């Protein structure tokens, strides 16, 4: 039986650029570094970036997979990331279900979404 998600890996051919983005811009603490793989601490799960021989260049289908990043203060996270030069596809907006959502892309074009659950 599957009992949950234990990690996410984004494959890339630009490990340095992607590591810098997730470490320095997004603020993910590094858990471990290997020559072709970096794992970050991400709550109870692992978020990793790795080199893969079958992956090259930016994604051509950025909407195929979306990673939701939880926050309790979407406005503050949004302001901090904009100050670091992150361009958002969608600024924070309140949804009909009362939560807040903002959408951005990483350097490879993968879609990330900040998600603040309703109070």
What does this structure look like?
- With 119 residues, the chain is of the alpha/beta class.
- It has two domains: 1-54, 2,3-Dihydroxybiphenyl 1,2-Dioxygenase, domain 1, CATH 3.10.180.10; 65-119, Signal recognition particle alu RNA binding heterodimer, srp9/1 (2-Layer Sandwich), CATH 3.30.720.110.
- 18% of the residues lie in helices and 40% in strands.
- The protein has helices at 15-25, 74-83, and strands at 7-12, 30-34, 37-42, 45-51, 66-70, 88-94, 100-105, 111-116.
- The strands form two sheets. A four-stranded mixed beta sheet has the order 1-4-3-2, with helices on one face. Strands 5-8-7-6 form a four-stranded mixed beta sheet, covered by helices on one side.
- β7 (100-105) and β8 (111-116) form a beta hairpin.
- It starts with 6 loop residues before the first strand and ends with a strand.
- The model has no long low-confidence stretch (mean pLDDT 95).
Number of strands: 8
CATH class of the largest domain: Alpha Beta
The dominant shape is: globular
Briefly note the structural class of the backbone: alpha/beta
Q: Compute the separation of the termini in Å.
A: 32 Å
Total separate domains: 2
Summarize it.
The chain is of the alpha/beta class and 119 residues long. It has helices at residues 15-25, 74-83, and strands at residues 7-12, 30-34, 37-42, 45-51, 66-70, 88-94, 100-105, 111-116. The protein is built from 2 helices and 8 strands, in the order E-H-E-E-E-E-H-E-E-E.
Layout of strands and helices, then pairs:
Layout: E1 7-12, H1 15-25, E2 30-34, E3 37-42, E4 45-51, E5 66-70, H2 74-83, E6 88-94, E7 100-105, E8 111-116
